[in-house]
Write a structure and sequence with these properties.
The complex is a heterodimer of chains A (421) and B (226). Chain A has 421 residues and is mainly alpha-helical. Chain A has 15 helices and two strands. Chain A is globular and about 70 Å long. Chain B has nine helices and no strands. Chain B is mainly α and 226 residues long. Chain B has one domain. Chain B is 75% helix and 0% strand. The chains are: A mainly alpha (421), B mainly alpha (226). The interface between A and B is large, with 47 and 46 residues.
Chain lengths: 421, 226
């Protein structure tokens, strides 16, 4: 599973980097023209953006666990200046919170890495009794540490501020690519845990996953800022991804449902494996499209307040289409691939977990649809200054990909007996 | 050599108690620098000279670079940041200085209790290393929470990192030169970026009081609306 995940994430991160780089070229120039004020130099911006991409790929492809730590810490360091591109008060506060909270989290992850490496040494020497405890404590610190960067509650507090204050292409990369890389770090450690503590690890991941979805649902309900809404949506989806991963690791491969094969050996249930990989990819693509659209809306209206951005269906039709379809897709409405993956989760999880997750997703859906409908329908309250058409190219391309793959996915899962093939 | 290491670790513990109680930024930077030197020296002192002979070039190189970065380079960066921000004293901490020292003692006691409860395998170099590591980590985290000035929060973070390094030395973890240098590079770049952030914050807010950095959030926004 880790091999599949690694290469998938490398491709995904590269694709997202290209998409956000192209959008940056248009966005940064427009943003400087409209907002003015003090901002970072363009050269520094592109250097940091490229270094950010390099650090993420380094984290994914790193040969050893401590090197992966070095790379993930590096992603924090090079992405922090990007958040404060505009040097406004809010952006500086978001950058400071991001730096401090993520660095402490990463410090805990380093501590966890040390514990796990010591446990591996003990395991090699054959000290079976002692190393179990080191593995357990190590995994807890890994989950807390890398979980901070993944945006799991209750360590997510930096996420809404950083993702809303950063310029749109940076928010898109943070939500779409960085959270996945941190999740990959957790997955990598889970893979090397011995079988005796597998149950404990999976239970811990499920607890944090459900907590993340719950916290996101609560804070989305009366949200006033549309970029913060998207940020909480990222918290929610990372929670779902962690839950899916934990259930995948717990469920043995069932011959009746098909098995996921990696490197010639069976690694787990096919349905859950595919659901997990699909959810990761399509959450990233949808979130990237949404953040880029949100960026365009921010430039047009000059504010992130939902109350001021209304009646898009009248004033900015293209963006209204992107926004409403994007929000519907991220909530898991068919024909979204996220519908298929969430269905996979609900079908495979124990009854109580499925019921709880569905109830929370219902709250999320209600909150997001309230905002999306308010923004796209109704009469405009402010007259926007429309953005150039070329800023819609990348979001519309992503939308086309999402619709095409979504239709395909929903057809596949509707074929009778698809779950058993 | 073990007794020298234990004396060093005891002094390390002392630096934490003093760090918790100081309100002068220069003194705090000096204490963190001293901790940095000790972190550099520790692997040499914990080395098993009788069994493994003299430590190789790699151990000396790592010790030297560790000491140079954490004991010299980072304090210079921090002093520069403090000078530019014209910050010399932590005037109104969230937790008073005497109470902070009591809390640091409490953290030390808890660390010794936890250290005893852990199953310490024979390969651990010194029984004192793990409690001292936990104390330093705890003190660092406490400083981040209990102080207002951004620079003191950076110092708390550095103390936290020093604690983790002591733990690594204590369990005799061997990473390899590249990883060690990678970790050091990360810490150095982090303090560099934090220094630049402090400069930007000072320029925009005319203060490095992190109390001013609490405009963003959801709870108070929701109250205002409803």
């Amino acid at each position: 599973m880790i091999e599949n995940l690694k290469w998938l994430l490398v491709w995904l991160t590269s694709a997202l980097f290209v998409a956000d780089l192209v959008q940056s070229v248009f966005y940064i120039r427009e943003a400087d023209r409209r907002e003015g004020g003090d901002h970072m130099s363009h050269r520094t911006y592109y250097i940091c953006l490229s270094a950010f991409f390099g650090a993420m790929v380094f984290a994914l492809l790193s040969p050893s666990l401590p090197l992966m730590w070095v790379a993930v810490e590096l992603t924090t360091l090079v992405s922090a200046p990007l958040i404060a591109y505009h040097r406004s008060r809010g952006a500086l506060e978001a950058m400071w919170k991001y730096l401090l909270i993520c660095s402490i989290g990463i410090g805990l992850a380093l501590f966890g890495t040390m514990l796990v490496m010591h446990a591996l040494e003990l395991q090699e020497k054959g000290v079976a009794e002692g190393c179990r405890m080191w593995f357990k404590v190590g995994f807890v610190f890994i989950l807390a540490g890398y979980g901070t960067k993944t945006g799991l509650a209750p360590f997510h507090t930096w996420l809404p501020d950083a993702h809303s204050e950063a310029p749109a292409p940076v928010s898109a990369l943070l939500s779409g690519a960085l959270l996945n890389c941190s999740f990959f770090a957790i997955a990598r450690f889970r893979e090397i845990m011995p079988a005796e503590i597998a149950g404990f690890c999976d239970a811990a991941m499920i607890v944090f996953g459900i907590l993340s979805v719950a916290v996101a649902a609560v804070f989305m309900v009366r949200q006033t800022d549309f970029k913060r809404l998207l940020a909480y949506s990222s918290v929610e989806h990372m929670g779902l991804i962690v839950i899916l991963f934990a259930i995948f690791m717990r469920t043995p491969a069932d011959p009746g449902r098909g098995a996921l094969i990696s490197g010639g050996e069976i690694v787990g249930d096919a349905v859950l494996g595919l659901a997990l990989l699909a959810h990761i990819v399509f959450h990233s693509l949808t979130k990237t499209m949404l953040f880029q659209t949100a960026g365009n809306l921010l430039l047009a209206f000059g504010t992130r307040a939902i109350a001021s951005v209304q009646g898009l269906g009248v004033s900015m039709k293209g963006h209204a289409a992107l926004w409403i379809v994007g929000i519907l897709f991220i909530c898991g409405m068919p024909p979204s691939v996220l519908f298929a993956s969430e269905l996979g989760l609900v079908v495979s999880a124990p009854f109580w977990m499925s019921a709880l997750v569905l109830a929370l997703l219902f709250i999320v859906f209600a909150a997001m649809m309230k905002v999306a409908l308010a923004m796209t329908m109704g009469t405009p309250v402010a007259k926007p200054e429309p953005v150039p058409g070329k800023m819609m190219i990348v979001p519309f391309t992503l939308l086309a990909i999402l619709v095409a793959s979504g239709v395909l996915a929903c057809i596949c899962i509707s074929i009778p007996g698809a779950w058993h093939n | 050599m073990t007794s020298t290491a234990e004396i060093l670790l005891a002094l390390f513990l002392l630096t934490n108690i003093v760090l918790a109680g100081t309100g002068r930024l220069r003194q705090a930077i000096r204490l963190v620098a001293v901790q940095g030197w000790m972190v550099g020296l520790l692997p040499i002192l914990l080395w098993n000279w009788t069994d493994a002979g003299a430590p190789g070039f790699r151990v000396w190189a790592v010790a030297f670079v560790n000491g140079a970065v954490k004991g010299v380079a980072l304090p210079i960066l921090l002093r520069y940041a403090a000078d530019r921000a014209k910050a010399n004293f932590e005037l109104e901490p969230l937790v008073g200085f005497r109470l902070s020292q009591v809390i640091a003692f409490a953290i030390a006691s808890a660390s010794f209790a936890i250290g005893k409860a852990l199953h310490i395998h024979e390969t651990v170099a010194s029984e004192l290393a793990i409690p001292v590591a936990f104390t330093t980590m705890g003190t660092g985290l406490f400083l981040i929470c209990a102080r207002r000035k951004a620079i003191t929060q950076v110092l708390g973070f550095l103390a936290f990192e020093n604690g983790i390094a002591v733990f690594g030395s204590g369990i005799l973890l061997e990473y390899g030169l590249v990883v060690e240098l990678g970790i050091l590079l990360d810490v150095f770049v982090l303090v560099f970026v934090l220094g630049i952030a402090i400069y930007q914050i000072n320029r925009t807010f005319s203060s490095i009081d992190t109390d001013r950095l609490n405009a963003l959030g959801d709870v108070h926004l929701m109250h205002r609306r409803g």
